[in-house]
Amino acid sequence: GPLEETSLPLFFGWFLCPDFQDKLRSMARDFLKTLKGLETFKNHLSDFTGEAEKEMDLEQYFQGKGVLHCTTKFCDYGKAEGAKEYAEQQCVRDRYGSISEVEVSALFVTPRTLGAKVSLTEEQLQLWPAGAEKEAAPDADLPLGSRAHVTLGCAEGVELVQTGLDLLEIVQLQKQGEEGERVEDLELGLLTYLGKGLWVLSLREPCRAPACFASYYG
Ligand code: ACK
């Protein structure tokens, strides 16, 4: 009935502790600041502006709001496929409210989104919905958890769901052996350009911090 439906959240996920949210946001700011100063980025600016000559400020380009998190299951208050089944899983119930360490291994920027790639542990993968990669990239046969990310910002008019889709595109290209153009050894890590406006910074030192597995009702 309707009561049951409204008892499902907008989504389940790991919610980053406040200190880590601040740290990630500040890393992302540094990343954008560095990126916009690079000649190679300027040479590919039309990926973002559509025209080579147009001015744009990368630091103003993305809008981020809300608590930083890594979505496991988007439930849409029960309207999303498999929402109820996910919420009823024993491991979801058991681990609800538990703290685990979330690891961020890369930052990425596309003309649509700014995000952080999350590397899940075996234990965290038990909370990962089996169809997450398949539903978005049915033919790619990507490892479970490939889509795991934290959205740090979206360009104007872009929906949050896009960050995970952009990450899947990146992972797919990397899987196909597309190493990309090695651009720069930055203090934070190695920056590569995969084409089509896809920039990836692989962190020298992955950063880890506690996060709480819970849900968001909005
Ligand atoms: O940044 P995100 O992971 O992308 O966090 C938000 C959260 O759920 C609330 O909107 C994610 N989200 C939205 N729509 C979908 C979808 N269709 N599939 C998977 N995740 C989604 C969004």
Radius of gyration, CA atoms, in whole angstroms: 18 Å
Bound molecules: 2',3'- cyclic AMP
Residue runs with pLDDT of under 50 for 5 or more positions: none
> Largest sheet at a glance?
9 strands, antiparallel
The sequence of SSEs as H and E is HEHHHHEEHHEEHHEHEEE
Strand coverage percent:
25-35%
Number of helices: 10
Shape: globular
Mean pLDDT metric: 94
Structural class: alpha+beta
Rounded to the nearest angstrom, the distance between the terminal CA atoms is: 21 Å
Number of strands: 9
Q: Please estimate the helix content.
A: 25-40%
Description:
By secondary structure, the protein is an alpha+beta fold. The chain has 10 helices and 9 strands. The chain has helices at 2-6, 18-37, 39-43, 46-49, 58-61, 83-88, 90-95, 122-125, 132-136, 162-175; strands at residues 11-16, 62-63, 69-74, 99-109, 113-119, 149-155, 181-185, 189-193, 199-216. Strands 1, 2, 3, 4, 5, 6, 7, 8 and 9 form a 9-stranded antiparallel sheet that branches. β7 (181-185) and β8 form a beta hairpin. The radius of gyration is 18 Å and the shape is globular. The mean pLDDT is 94. The structure holds 2',3'- cyclic AMP. The site of 2',3'- cyclic AMP (ACK) has 9 residues, from β3 and α10. 2',3'- cyclic AMP binds at residues 10-11, 71, 74, 151, 160-161, 163-164.
